[in-house]
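Comment thread on ticket #2218

A.B. wrote:
> Attaching the input chain for the structure job we discussed in standup.
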Amino acid sequence: MRLFDSHSHIDDKSFKHDFDEMLTRAYDADIKAIMVVGINPATTRQAIHLTKKYSHDNEHPGNNLKSLPRLFTSVGMHPHDAKKCSHDIIEEFKVLAKQKCVKAWGETGLDFNRMHSPKEDQEKWFTEQIAAANELNLPMIFHERDSDGRFLEILKYAGHREKGGVVHCFSGSKEEMSQYLDLGYYIGITGILTIEQRGRLLREIAVHIPDDRIVIETDAPYLTPAPMKNKTRRNEPAFVRHVMLKLAEIKGMDVESLADIIWNNTCRLYGINELNDKK
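C.D. wrote:
> Ran it. Output below, let me know if you need it in another format.
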């Protein structure tokens, strides 16, 4: 079985002391690829550094990188940090995005729940990042929380269609899901799916997501799935396996068949053709 953790933050300092071991655990759990998502200039640069350091292109005697997952990355400014964004930062992202390991733009969007940045800043820089992704022909990684329809309004107005994208950590309604699907986007499912109470509505909705439009993710080090949440607070890519198992269970599908579909979905989403011929 091949699994792709389509959204992680393993550049986080909580992985610093056991990064290699964490990647080994992921590979042993069938996770063969990981998207390391940028959320501001510093994390984007660190994600690119890690992706290059652990690139299979660096394989040489003494390295065992082919026994670790392939790493890819994205560039972008999270809505929490929108008030710190600028045209200079967008231009820096454009330069960074030209590197081979960068496969998407994001995480970006709107978050009107915690309001770490004013609405006007979030909307301005979300729109600017959509334009940049369109310019570079990159798929997008979206963050949406409690935007009361404004997120969809901006998507429709800004017209990001060409390369598509994914609504990361989907937690909306069935109606919102349908609108995302109509716009051509994928739906990202996290460990929330496995949580008895918190994941109840998501499990009801996930049954209706077309198989060819689902990707799975950890959002590590956050959102640890059951049963691992009872053992450790920190989520990590190996645990995306539990999301896969629960998704197959609620859809009533063979786990290996669904895993193969979702692997192909993720490669298609991010335009990663080089993985499809590798077991």
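A.B. wrote:
> Thanks. Noting for the ticket: The domain at 3-275 is CATH 3.20.20.140 (TIM Barrel).
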